[in-house]
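To the structural biology subgroup,

Please find below the input and predicted structure for FCD domain-containing protein, which we are adding to the shared reference set this quarter. The sequence is reproduced verbatim from the submission form. If anyone notices a discrepancy with their own records, reply to this email rather than editing the shared folder directly, so we keep one authoritative version.
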Amino acid sequence: MAGQSRPQQAKDLQEPPAPGRHSLRDTVEEALREALLTGRFVPGRAVTLRGLAQELKVSPMPVREAVRAMAAGHALEIRANGRIQVPTMTPSRLAEIVKARLLLEPELAQAAASSLGPRDAARLAAIDDRIDASLDGGDAETYMRLNHSFHFLIYRAAGSQVLLPLVESLWLQFAPFMRTVYGRVGTFALVDHHKEAIEAVRARDAAALREAVAADIRCGMDLLDTGLPDTGLADAGPSVAE
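Predicted structure (tokenized):
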């Protein structure tokens, strides 16, 4: 906290949050995560704290706290004028995200395989049916929400307190750009490997689940790489309040 003395900083760290403040900030942060994961933060379009607070029907303070937390994880950035936007996606940053996803997510999937059973396979199949329906209907926002649910049903089963938050951070960083791509090429261009993942879960085949997840990542990231080279990243869909 720039401008504060060390004693004041220490006092801030020692004092508990005001009653209700922490839970309200958590609620706001979850709403911002949902907006990022479904592409409602449009790359290239800045928004204001006041606009976000009005949309969420809260005061600016918990929004400011939540935005700072998400900026620390590189999901959002706070510009010099105080407006908020999704950080720019450069080719080098995209390459790092792809590399990190391919390192972490297949590892989580493989670790999860022994904890997943027939009931989980049925849940994954039900989600995948809804994903197919959203793709047929061109509903990118619903697709993105369900695709996240599909992957994280698998990843959470690994029980990792270290890898899971890292993967969640990566999804928050690339999801807005996926929505931009879907707005350009349409949902018909999407290819996934969910059926292979479901079969691997049914068979409790850790190696096959790892490969299905890796193949799914490659398909999605290849589409992102193809869809963003001209980056005129405006208006790919509805945005959060400005």
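Summary notes: Residues 1-21, 231-238 have pLDDT under 50 and may be disordered. The domain at 18-85 is CATH 1.10.10.10 (Arc Repressor Mutant, subunit A).

Regards,
Lab coordination
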